What we know:
With 82 residues, this protein is of the alpha+beta class. It has helices at residues 2-20, 37-40, 69-81, and strands at residues 43-45, 52-54, 59-61, 64-66.
Amino acid sequence: MAKLLVLIAVIAAVYWWFFKKPSALGSSTNKPSDDGQDSQHTLQACRYCDVNVPVSEGVLKESQFFCCEEHANAFLEKQNQQ
């Protein structure tokens, strides 16, 4: 009975070692990157149409975020008319 328990413990340790333990080789597949890529993938809503767009693809005019140049111009034009 004791041999069976030791065998189960060894199998569990080997399983944990290969499948659950973080890799000592520096694999970063599960780690978030820290090279500024998070800000490029951050979504923000367009002030004109409320569509969420990555910040890197949008337009920032007069401290307001827009999905495209056309929406920025339309919104600011409408705002200036009022």
